[in-house]
Structure prediction request, 156 residues.
Amino acid sequence: MIATLATAILSTPLAAQALSPLDPEMWEEPYQPPPPLPEGLQGTVRRDPNATDVERIDQIAQVFQAIQACWRAPSGSGYSGQEITLRLSFKRSGEVLGRPRITYYNAGTQPEQREPFTRAVREALTRCTPLPFTESFGRAIAGRIFSFRFVDAQPM
Prediction:
């Protein structure tokens, strides 16, 4: 009985018009805000005497490899426990866009090593940039936020 009643209701012209696929309200989804963009791309830079230079950068991981290969921890610093996290963006050409921002600093245990460590980080950005981005990678990555965590600590 219920099945015949449902069939009778749905077969009327009014019901067919209300359920028509041409009715925009039937096929449009309600507005959903776009998902948020990722906060940024993050990587840790530690002293690595075996790090090799990167000729051309066309992958995100190579950005961190290039900075790690270029960074020279201050001589005689040992493992001072210092950390600096920098946030920055790049232009298509591989140059730094604007000024890097220090978002975290841990002074470590050796006060006499603080100035040489922060100087080494500044020098690394000066020496390493512009990074050798490929043209397509430079277009894709321009303006994205990178976080580089420079660590002068014993590797775990």
